[in-house]
Amino acid sequence: MNEYKEFVPNVHFELIPIKNLVSNQEYQRALSQKQVEMASENFDLYQINPVKVSRRNGMNYVFNGQHTVEIVALRSGSRDTPVWCMIYDDLEYEEEADIFANQMKYVRPLKPHEIFTANIEAGNPDQLMIKSLVESLGLEIGQIKKPGTILAVGTLESIYKKYGYHVLSRVLKLCAATWEGDVNSFSANMLRAVSKLVVTYGDAMDDMVFIEHVGNKTPKQISRMARDRGSGSEFFTQILLEEYNGKRRGNTRLSPRKLYTRTELLKPTSKERDELESEVEQAVLFNSFKPDQVVDL
Predict the structure, then answer these.
(1) H-helix or E-strand containing 197?
(2) Lowest-confidence pick of 82-91, 169-178, 219-228, 281-290
(3) Which domains does the chain possess?
(4) Higher-pLDDT residue of 27, 188
(5) Taking a C-beta distance cutoff of 8 angstroms, is the pair 254, 245 a contact?
(6) Residue 154 burial (CB count, 10 A)
(7) Is 61 helix (H, G, I), strand (E, B) or coil?
(8) pLDDT digits (tens, 9 = 90+) for 226-278
(9) pLDDT for 16-34, tens place per residue?
(10) Is residue 233 within 8 Å of residue 192, measured between CB atoms?
(11) Axis crossing angle, helix 188-201 with helix 270-285, rounded to the nearest 10
């Protein structure tokens, strides 16, 4: 086994009580209490990784895993709780800092579609429900831009989580019926914009009027008009509402004021920002719009 020694770290594992661990070295990022509390509420024992510890001068310095330590302490209610630690006995302070700075350098984060697929394989109910709904409408969730395919899976999950099954169902039906499966009608910005209208106006918005009036503009035209105003789904929402209202007057007109008084805008999560970047790449690849029209995300 000696020939493989250079590929095997010189470490050993110990269970160490949290009270005997030292965190907050200068090179570490500040502890996020919000992140600790959120992770604690969704505590999963199988998601706990070993804490990396440098043992120097008899002290156990955590150089990777300080949030893990605090999550376990909060969840267990005691700093006597032990955590598994991967102990390095031969590191200097500068080496710890270097490892911390470069540990994620060659790690590729999971994409939203990869996470969604893994949740499907795990049999998680939310993702199974979303997949079933999408397929019931003759659509599919995928990674290749083609008619009837939804790439923005993170946005589907956000709408489902925030507003529920029935809102997501209505949003997808409206997009499918209005633009007949045009792949651009299922972009992250478009889905968020339609969901904003659905949640804000409810039954006051007539689906048939939406399909007839808003459908006079293609998704590409709406996207171009929105980008002329700025970056973000709120501008898509404005365009959709204006097309819906047209020259309508009286009680059948939807008041623009309600957009900013009843509900918050669905702002993109980090997963959705990945999707937006992916959509830009796909659009450039398929000549959906010119590179010089790309806006900052």
Answers:
(1) helix 188-201
(2) 281-290
(3) 10-102 (3.90.1530.10), 112-293 (no CATH)
(4) 188
(5) yes
(6) 24
(7) strand
(8) 999 998 899 999 999 999 998 766 667 899 888 876 444 455 555 555 555 55
(9) 999 999 987 888 888 899 9
(10) yes
(11) 130
- Token pair for 208: 């048939």
**Rounded Cα–Cα distance for residues 2 and 205 (Å):** 72
8 Å CB contact between 167 and 199:
yes
Q: Characterize the bridge pairing of strands 51-56 and 82-88.
A: parallel
* Distance separating alpha carbons of residues 136 and 156, to the nearest angstrom: 15
CA 225, 230, 236: angle at the middle one, nearest 5? 50
> 96: which 2 tokens?
């710890």
DSSP classification of residue 118: H
> What Rg do the C-alpha atoms of the chain give, in angstroms?
25
Residue 143 in tokens: 């990674």
3-state secondary structure of 88: strand
Residue 84, strand partner residues: 15
Evaluate if residue 290 carries a pLDDT over 50: no
Q: Looking at this protein, which amino acid is placed at residue 189?
A: N
